[in-house]
Amino acid sequence: MRELMLAALDGDAAAYRRLLAELTRYLRPWFARRLSPSHASHAEDLVQETLLALHTKRSTYDRSRPFTAWLHAVAHHKFVDHVRRHAIRPTVHLDDDAPIFAFDDSAHAADRRDVDAVLTEVPERTADLIRQTRIEGASIAEAAARHGMSETAAKVSIHRGLKSLMNRFAGGSK
Length: 174
Hints:
Elements lengths: L1 H8 L3 H22 L8 H15 L9 H20 L22 H11 L4 H12 L4 H7 L4 H20 L4
Helix pairs in contact: 1-2, 2-3, 3-4, 6-8, 7-8
GO biological process, one term: DNA-templated transcription initiation
GO molecular function: DNA binding; sigma factor activity
Organism: Devosia marina
């Protein structure tokens, strides 16, 4: 192929046609081996793109160097361009990002420690009722059901617990 390229560069049109025919026969399987089965139909496009690039850049070929090395460099660049154009990049919809991104609640860690420390001042069941209803957003009915008590009893426990905490930490009277 090198001799054909040199003759073509010297103006031999017949040598140039033979070179293009040989390159076509050589490049088809070269690209086919590198393409995935789902992109095998693109081999002919890559052959044509490579031949076009060889034609437009033929004046850059260094006659003292091997032709196949230059040919492979051009073909490789066309192959890389193809892969970049047709690459399938995984995407995640923003609605589905929960498993990917961890919730950063470090700014609230000190607040949680303070609340936990304050709630140690009331009985454990009362602290749990306050935590469920006032912090976690559960209804009084839900919190009462979790503790096996009536809603009224849960309300009284929460009210007394909050009043006790207010008196303890707000400086109010008991």
